[in-house]
Write a structure and sequence with these properties.
By secondary structure, the chain is mainly alpha-helical. The protein is about 55% helix and about 5% strand.
Length: about 350
């Protein structure tokens, strides 16, 4: 397979992941919902701000979902994740925030818009065709996006968003937010449901909250009598005390698995940015392999934390030889298969 063909295949696979996750959260589409991983709405928004530009339907469905469900989105966590992982869509977040401003929620979105918008980019088309070329421009530009340097037709609501299904295992975080409000305790419970035990520092690192926030939350939750605590050396490890949480939150007695989606999505974004480089398409495979290996090595620390034990030796230089382009592409394909 040529690098050009692999690029298109990778883009389609990433778009399938984005589609299936948004469908699980309530947008209409043809793919089945996902149930393997607990979804992360904030990380999904950040990833869609990049990959969704190649599929206007999923991007606009995300905007409509945000309009309907914005009360369940944690804007502070969105900013923290974006700052920690350095996603590529800062200016797009500013445009989305401007679009979502309304009297009841104006303050939080206005602050986000001001903080995310750095220098406006050179004016460019928001949407791209799958080959990377700009999407044909239409009339009636949307002012919310043009202020951030993006050109697109005026956004129109299709009213095609359904309420997310709370009993889908992947929607555990959303279910918790509707029960307890949008706060750190939702991620704490979801994480402890999917792990034997954990300390506040570990939970902070994978949930997008500060260590202090998690420590205060879990200390107060422990006072309820519904958490267990054991001391191991100098650290305190917390766990959910019995099966009552599982019976209450998961009717079929099972949870989806935990995935550190901010790190996983940012890893894919780093790899995609390298593969999407037009100058590599017509270059020799040795140069392409070198560039992709650099990107994979940049993403590798995140992948080792997000999917520990999955990424082992690839891609790296083997003694006396270099990895071939096909081997790197195989590694990326296996990663996509694992995350789907």
């Amino acid at each position: 397979m040529s690098l050009k063909d692999f690029r298109l295949q990778l883009l389609d696979r990433m778009l399938d992941i984005v589609w299936s996750q948004w469908i699980t959260l309530g947008i209409s589409g043809n793919l089945p919902p996902t149930d393997r991983w607990i979804l992360d709405p904030e990380a999904l928004v950040l990833f869609t701000c990049n990959i969704g530009r190649y599929e206007p339907r999923v991007f606009d469905s995300m905007l409509e979902w945000l309009k309907v469900n914005q009360r369940f989105l944690n804007v502070q966590r969105l900013k923290t994740i974006n700052k920690r992982e350095n996603f590529a869509g800062k200016n797009l977040l500013a445009a989305i925030a401007h679009l979502l401003m309304k009297p009841a929620s104006r303050s939080k979105w206005e602050r986000l818009s001001e903080q995310m918008l750095t220098k406006p980019l050179k004016e460019q088309s928001l949407f791209r065709l799958k080959d990377g070329s700009p999407h044909p421009q239409l009339e009636n530009a949307d002012t919310s996006f043009s202020k951030a340097g993006y050109i697109r037709q005026e956004f129109r609501y299709r009213k095609a968003i359904a309420h997310f299904k709370p009993d889908l295992r992947a929607n555990l975080t959303m279910k918790l937010r509707t029960l307890f409000g949008v706060n750190s305790r939702c991620e704490v419970i979801a994480y402890l449901l999917t792990h034997d035990d954990a300390n506040p520092t570990e939970i902070s690192a994978v949930t997008g909250y500060s260590s202090k926030t998690i420590y205060n939350a879990i200390s107060e939750m422990y006072m309820s009598g519904k958490l267990n605590r054991r001391v191991s050396g100098k650290e305190s490890l917390y766990s959910l005390g019995d099966n009552s949480w599982l019976a209450f939150l998961c009717p079929d007695g099972r949870t989806a698995r935990w995935m550190d989606w901010p790190k996983a999505f940012r890893s894919l974004e780093i790899i995609w940015t390298a593969i999407d480089n037009p100058r590599l398409i017509n270059e020799d495979t040795e140069l392409a392999a070198s560039e992709l290996k650099l990107a994979f090595n940049e993403a590798r620390p995140r992948l080792q934390k997000a999917v520990p034990g999955y990424i082992k030796e690839l891609p790296s230089s083997r003694e006396g030889s270099e990895l071939r382009l096909e081997e790197i592409c195989d590694a990326v394909e296996s990663l996509i298969e694992y995350l789907a």
